[in-house]
Amino acid sequence: MSKSRGVLIVLVIAAALWALTISAWQAGVGSDTLGPAGVATVTDDSASQASPVATACVAIIAVTGLLAAMLGRIGRFVVLGLAAVAGIGYGITALTAAASPGATSWPIIAAVAAGIGVIGILWVATASARWTNSNRYARSAEAGGEEFDSAATWDALSRGEDVEDDPDSK
Q1: pLDDT tens-digit profile of 141-159?
Q2: Strand partners, 34
Q3: Is the pTM of this model over 0.85?
Q4: Strand, coil or helix: 34
Q5: Where are the alpha helices (DSSP H) in 22-167?
Q6: Which one, 3, 42, 45, 166, has the greatest CB density within 10 A?
């Protein structure tokens, strides 16, 4: 799996959980607030009952998904582990909402989605071990059979020497 696909998977998980976060179970719309023909009547008070914990968990998952693309191997494991913990927190929040009186089936669906999301995040975390850091100078040095030294490259650039991708291109 490539780095971009891994980040995309985590962001899709966050988007799916976000869609469930703004659904009726988060807004406090239960079966007792349904109007004629099953249409939910939303009042100003019901919008303030959305769970800030679930919203924060979704934000953590999205941000850690983006951070995973910027960090090294250990950093990716740490932030994706944090994303998995946030997914578990989201699932616990959904199960707590399912236990409340007048709850619909949305919290159960959200809890299942959170479990699937945690599995997906852990899969991305294990696959991220094979991601490489993108550095064009490192790639050109490795292609030439040399060891890449970033400090030497920066020193050469500071002295005004041009560091080329392919020395044989001239």
Answers
A1: 555 556 666 677 778 778 8
A2: 40
A3: no
A4: strand
A5: 44-47, 52-70, 73-98, 106-127, 136-143, 150-158
A6: 3
